[in-house]
Amino acid sequence: MARDFGSSATKQYFTSRIKKAAKSLEAKGYEVITVDTGDEAAQKVLDLVPEGGSVGFGGSVTTRQLDLIETLEKKGHRVFDHWKAGLSKEEVTAVRRGQLTSDVFVLSVNALTLDGEIVNIDGTGNRVAASIYGPKRVVFVVGAQKIVDDLDGAFYRAKFVAAPINSTRLNLKTPCAYTGECNDCDSPGRICNVTVVFDRKPTGTPMTVILVGEELGY
Ligand code: SF4
Fold first, then answer.
1. Averaged pLDDT of the chain
2. Which atom of ligand 1 is the closest one to the Cα of 192?
3. Which domains does the chain have, with CATH numbers?
4. Is the dihedral of CA 18, 145, 36, 217 positive or negative?
5. Residue of minimum CA distance from atom 8 in ligand 1
6. If you measure from the C-alpha of residue 119 to the centroid of ligand 1, how many angstroms do you get, rounded to a whole number?
7. Strand (E) positions, the chain?
8. pLDDT tier at 7 (50, 70, 90 boundaries)?
9. Cβ atoms of residues 18 and 195 within 8 Å
10. Which atom of ligand 1 is nearest the CA belonging to 160?
């Protein structure tokens, strides 16, 4: 579930950061949509999916919180969701490959800087691969708590906030799952093998960033 920020002072703080990040992202070539709630974000994503278009979802708690998958399937869209229960290893691989050529690929970020840099860290790499090139459109959905001041803050957030929480969520035997801190591990379950920084929007693919005035994902 999305979580709003409660007090009006907190909301004002996040609103001003969203405005600054939005301006930076627009200057870097992204289409930017700002909304107040996760429900509004979900509707904006649906509006971006063409009639009959396929939709891929990166490994992202944010996008699952929007409850889009069931809605899209009911509308007859082909959905590439590698978190779907009951998939075999081979099927997961096939779904990940399908994401690479989907009509719309939806994911979140580990962090977004006020200067409009997007940072994502992946274990397998399918999420970051599809976010760069392949799908006809890429849509990032970003809860306001993921906006950080700069790239140092982004890397810190990815390794010391998002990765430990995700490691715990996935029951991985990584050090951060137990300690909440990154020690640059050699664990077989390590989820931080590929780091991608979008300095600007890559050429060729339309990309939309939906900034949400609520806490979404990790
Ligand atoms: S490198 Fe290892 S310890 Fe550090 S955040 Fe990634 S999985 Fe956790």
1. 95
2. 6
3. 8-212 (3.40.50.10420)
4. positive
5. 176
6. 16
7. 31-35, 55-57, 79-81, 104-107, 111-113, 118-122, 137-143, 147-148, 194-198, 207-212
8. confident
9. no
10. 5
Q: Comparing C-alpha atoms, which of 5, 16, 8, 18 is closest to residue 147?
A: 18
C-alpha closest to that of 35 among 217, 218, 211: 211
Neighbouring-strand partners of residue 140: 107, 209
Ligand 1: centre distance to CA 126 (Å): 18
Whether the per-residue pLDDT at 1 is higher than 70: the answer is no
Q: Are strands 31-35 and 207-212 parallel, antiparallel or unpaired?
A: parallel
Ligand 1 pocket by Cβ (under 6 Å): 159, 163, 167, 174-176, 182-185, 187, 190-192
Q: pLDDT tens-digit profile of 146-170? A: 999 999 999 999 999 999 999 998 8
Between strands 118-122 and 137-143, the pairing is unpaired
Q: What 3-state class would DSSP assign to 217?
A: coil
pTM for the full predicted model: 0.94
Q: Which atom of ligand 1 is nearest to the CA of 177?
A: 8
Residue 102's Cβ-count burial label (10 Å; 0-12, 13-18, 19+) is buried
